[in-house]
Automatic annotation (TrEMBL):
EC number annotated for this UniProt entry: 3.5.2.9
Name of this chain's protein: 5-oxoprolinase subunit A
Entry function: Catalyzes the cleavage of 5-oxoproline to form L-glutamate coupled to the hydrolysis of ATP to ADP and inorganic phosphate.
Assembly information from the UniProt record: Forms a complex composed of PxpA, PxpB and PxpC.
GO biological process: carbohydrate metabolic process
Organism in which the protein naturally occurs: Streptomyces armeniacus
InterPro entries: Glyco_hydro/deAcase_b/a-brl, LamB/YcsF/PxpA-like
Coiled-coil portions: none
């Protein structure tokens, strides 16, 4: 059996009066909160509220950095020059850190969102720009991402910690990459399937890929998407299933 597992989810994904994630409910079950920093979602008041809630629940907060794409929720492919991207990553980390410090906590890690997550996993130049942004922000924060990704390689080259994550509610290709959104099987919505995958990943480091074959995938953190309908209830059930399987759920940072 693997060691303790972290449970992370995307929070603060709203803007103004529009709210996509049930942050208060999710904070009762996750151990790490990937907080939107204003580029794909989120605004100052939302960031402040999530940080205060995370502090109250003992949940770690991470900066979920993104391409500047509010209209596309950060899921549209973009070409951003490396120096510009590094500056924008640092800007987002700094914005969240203001509200984390005000709540008596600190930003504990960085995780790219959406199109940036996928691009940085495969593109060494964009990965290096994300890492440069973390270094520019002034704190050697861990990078949360896919095992064997270009992002993790760039972070390790720069002397930054890395944390491998896996998705309990996303489909995987046989090579360990995620099935792109829009393709069949990209997002898993059947609770029983998500629960089975979460336990399999946490306990044995195994799942079934999109081609039906077993895939070995070690991870220290499991992600559940906060914008999935019923995400908070699913997070509760995942924690219960993990506990029943003898898996300790604990923040990695």
């Amino acid at each position: 059996m693997n060691g303790p597992i972290d449970l992370n989810a995307d929070l603060g994904e709203g803007f103004g009066r529009w709210h996509l994630t049930d942050d208060d409910a999710l904070l009762a079950y996750v151990t790490s909160a990937n907080v939107a920093c204003g580029f794909h979602a989120g605004d100052p008041a939302t960031m402040r509220r999530v940080c205060e809630g995370a502090a109250a629940h003992g949940v770690r907060v991470g900066a979920q950095v993104s391409y500047r794409d509010l209209a596309g929720f950060g899921r549209r492919a973009m070409d951003v020059p490396a120096p510009e991207l590094a500056a924008e990553v640092a800007y987002q980390i700094g914005a969240l850190d203001i509200f984390a410090r005000a709540a008596g906590i600190r930003v504990s890690y960085v995780k790219p969102h959406g199109a940036l997550y996928h691009r940085a996993a495969q593109d060494p130049e964009q990965a290096a720009a994300v890492v440069a942004g973390v270094r520019l922000a002034g704190t050697p924060l861990p990078l949360l991402g896919l095992t064997g990704s270009a992002l993790h390689a760039a972070a390790e080259d720069a002397g930054l910690p890395t944390v491998a994550e896996a998705f309990a509610d996303r489909g995987y290709r046989p090579d360990g990459t995620l099935v792109p959104r829009g393709e069949p099987g990209a997002v898993l919505t059947e609770p029983g399937e998500v629960l089975k995958r979460a336990v399999g990943l946490a306990r044995d480091g195994r799942l079934t890929a999109a081609d039906g074959k077993p895939l070995r995938l070690r991870a220290r953190s499991l992600c559940l998407h906060g914008d999935t309908p019923g995400a908070a209830d699913l997070a509760r059930r995942v924690r219960e299933e993990l506990a029943a399987a003898g898996v300790t759920v604990r923040a990695f940072s």
